[in-house]
Sequence to fold (140 residues):
Amino acid sequence: MYDWIKAVHVLAVISWMAGMLYLPRLMVYHVDSAVGSIQSETFKIMERRLLKGIMNPAMIVTWVLGLYLAWDAFGFRGGWLHGKILLVVLLSGIHGYLAGRVRAFAEDRNQKSGRFYRILNEVPAVLLVGIVILVIVKPF
Fold:
């Protein structure tokens, strides 16, 4: 069963990361849409569906199965595992922040620039690099 759980965990991580990398990019384009325009309303729908339909469920599955694997396979031991969990907590914080930005756009009260979202778009990618290195290399 372990390999199946790990496979579903990896699929959930891929789905979550796809959303984490795409949502800020949608926001970059949404910033340039006039409030109330068809384009703006379309971005609102896309952002909400991405968050609620893909990102939230994928994050939950990632966490549940990841914690199970950390307990079952490693007994929550290992510096690399603690580092990975810390980075996943930070990634979850970014997820929460993005959810707040989705709400701000939905209420037409975004005050951030496209540049802000371009920079924010890089944060999940950097965290992902750290997580993958910790999991594969296990440097400590």
Q: What stands out?
A: Helices lie at 2-31, 38-74, 79-106, 114-120, 122-137.
